Give the backbone structure.
Amino acid sequence: MSQGGLSEATGMPQAVISRVEGGQREAPRFETVARMAAGLQISLDDVAAACGSGDGKSRKIRSKSNMPAVAAEARAIQRELRALQRRVENLLALATSSEPRRKS
């Protein structure tokens, strides 16, 4: 998803998204991260995992070096979700096309 697309999905200014992704905003507020995660359709658990939360090697989400990794992980998750959605659509199409027709 582009920054413009995320801006539309979240209602956040593209400049804010650009600064967070580029690490120029060192301590994004939780609300900002939560809105971006929702716009990217990823859970906050996935964001925390991408930042190393809870593994004893915690890396702060505000770290400039982590935001590109979080963004890359979010894009990878989006690709996986799109692939799964296509598979489900294909399965549904197959199921509906192979249903036996009722005789009247």
Notes: Residues 89 and 95 are 10 Å apart (CA to CA). Helices lie at 3-10, 14-21, 30-39, 44-50, 66-97. Confidence is low (pLDDT under 50) at residues 56-63. The two ends are 49 Å apart (CA to CA).
